[in-house]
Design a protein that fits this description.
Blueprint: H1 11-46, E1 51-66, E2 72-86, E3 96-99, E4 104-107, H2 110-113, H3 122-150, E5 153-155, E6 162-164, H4 168-172, E7 179-183, E8 186-187, H5 191-198, E9 206-212, E10 215-221, E11 224-226, E12 239-241, E13 244-245, E14 249-251, E15 255-258, E16 261-262, H6 267-275, E17 281-286, E18 294-299, E19 318-320, E20 328-330, H7 334-359, H8 372-385, H9 387-405, H10 413-426, H11 432-462
Helix pairs in contact: 1-3, 1-8, 1-9, 3-7, 3-9, 3-10, 8-9
Length: about 475
């Protein structure tokens, strides 16, 4: 009897996986950390503090050089991130340092104190501490803006291919296939131009000029106000909804019924029913929100869904209603690009904050933390998808590093800022004893979080 066939990973595939999930992860984290430390370096130099060392990596130095300002630039043995060594980061009242050359302690000279961190004003030291997270945020902004300037923002054609039953657009008489030519008398080329207005203005009617089967029609419609809590437990602000869109794909796990046939938690059943109804207008019930589902009229072209016949396809978990290979992009100028990047990052941080608010209440299945494996997963996937996804991943990682570092936890930049704020208010610095105790507690706390995060990753790997 023949042995069952098994999937065998070739050496080439193994090397690709190691590079994609291992090397790229290490290099990505290293790059973000080096940029973070460079922020501290620039700020220190700007306020007149000497930087003794800037190391790429940790451990024993492999090679390097010293510049005219006395900073040693070097590459160290472990190429994971890097660090800066700020001169004079000691107790201001007792500026004792370790003299490596003479292997003994000594007191800083009057000349050295002029360039020491400990003698600078509180606001100057705060700038040095805050510069790391700040440059990470600026890096994320620049990376996101570069995508909008180089590749551009995807344009969603103003063609209706999904229509929610019982919504404003459905009741106003819109149909699948309608192309919106003008919105309130202005020509449009992107569905987002409509949604950006109607999402915040649901009280006033708007005029739509549409093309349907070669005929030009005019429809006046008022969006409807909605307010709901999403599936992750986050409360959304009120906004207007029109109920029509140009959707790209639907995931089978979100489809709860097709033509009245229940498919909740039955993705294979949803796939089976939809395969029998290709190129037809069908009613699909989708779970988007916590308190209710939405029924859509939609048509899925068979020409775009040949992948459903191949269970090994990367897209086997979704069905397409539009061609993902035929996407148009609009390039932004530098000012518009940075404005959009700031908006995207701001919204992302707000969503993260909302998620943290509901995690402890058990209202979401979203993972609260993730370890190295999670970072590696996203790094590998971004490399696979293309340069824009890789740049976006680096931006998200940079924001993540900044966000973590500004947390008010000792050992992190946010903790040092708290100490400096205390010094600025009281006029005296936090005692070394209190600092050392808080550092020890923080080390145990952060170490526990790291262990827990990676343990969760390991459990997920063992029990997928």
């Amino acid at each position: 009897m023949d042995a069952p066939a098994t999937d065998v990973i070739t050496l080439s595939e193994l090397a690709t996986m190691i590079f994609r999930y291992g090397v790229v992860t290490v290099l990505s984290i290293a790059l973000i950390i080096v940029v973070h430390e460079f922020g501290h370096y620039l700020a220190a130099r700007a306020v007149g503090v000497k930087v003794r060392k800037f190391s790429l990596g940790f451990g024993k130095e492999l090679f390097g050089c010293t510049d005219r300002w006395g900073t040693r630039w070097c590459v160290s043995r472990l190429p994971i991130g890097g660090y800066v060594e700020i001169f004079g980061d000691v107790d201001r009242d007792n500026p004792i340092v370790w003299d490596k050359e003479n292997n003994c302690e000594r007191r800083l000279s009057e000349e050295e104190l002029k360039f020491a961190y400990c003698t600078k004003k509180v606001w100057q030291r705060m700038i040095i501490v805050a510069a790391g997270p700040a440059i990470n945020i600026f890096m994320a902004l620049s990376l996101m803006a570069s995508i909008y300037m180089i590749r551009g923002v995807a344009i969603i054609p103003p063609v209706v291919n999904s229509l929610a039953i019982g919504t404003a657009s459905y009741d106003a008489g819109f149909q699948l296939g309608d192309r919106i030519l003008e919105f309130d008398g202005k020509k449009i080329s992107n569905f987002m131009q409509i949604q950006e207005v109607t999402s915040r203005d649901w009280e006033n009617p708007h005029t739509y000029k549409i093309e349907r089967n070669g005929k030009i029609l005019t429809i006046q419609m008022t969006a409807r106000e909605i307010n709901f809590t999403d599936k992750k437990g986050r409360k959304r602000e009120n906004r207007g909804r029109i109920g029509m869109m140009n959707s790209n794909a639907s995931f089978f796990e979100h489809i709860v019924a097709v033509e009245g046939i229940e498919t909740k938690d039955k993705p294979d059943k949803a796939r089976e029913v939809l395969l029998k109804n290709m190129d037809k207008v069908v009613t699909v019930e989708i779970s988007f929100r916590e308190e209710q589902n939405d029924k859509f009229l939609v048509s899925f072209p068979s020409a775009l869904n040949e992948h459903l016949k191949n269970p090994k396809s990367d897209y086997y978990d979704r069905i397409f209603s539009s061609d993902i290979n035929n996407i148009e992009y609009e390039r932004y100028d530098i000012f518009r690009a940075y404005d959009r990047a700031a908006g995207q990052i701001g919204n992302g941080l707000l969503e993260a904050y909302k998620l943290l608010q509901v995690i402890h209440k058990g209202k979401t299945e979203e993972r609260a933390i993730g370890g190295v494996a999670v970072v590696a997963k996203y790094a590998g996937n971004s490399v696979k998808e293309g340069w824009a996804d890789m740049v976006r991943f680096l931006a998200i990682l940079s924001i993540g590093i900044a966000f973590i570092n500004i947390l008010p936890i000792p050992l992190l930049d946010g903790g040092f800022l708290i100490f400096l704020i205390y010094e600025g208010i009281t006029g005296r610095s936090v005692s070394p004893r209190v600092q050392n105790l808080s550092f020890a507690i923080a080390l145990v706390f952060l170490g526990g979080i790291m262990i827990l995060a990676n343990l969760i990753d390991l459990i997920d790997f063992i029990n997928p």
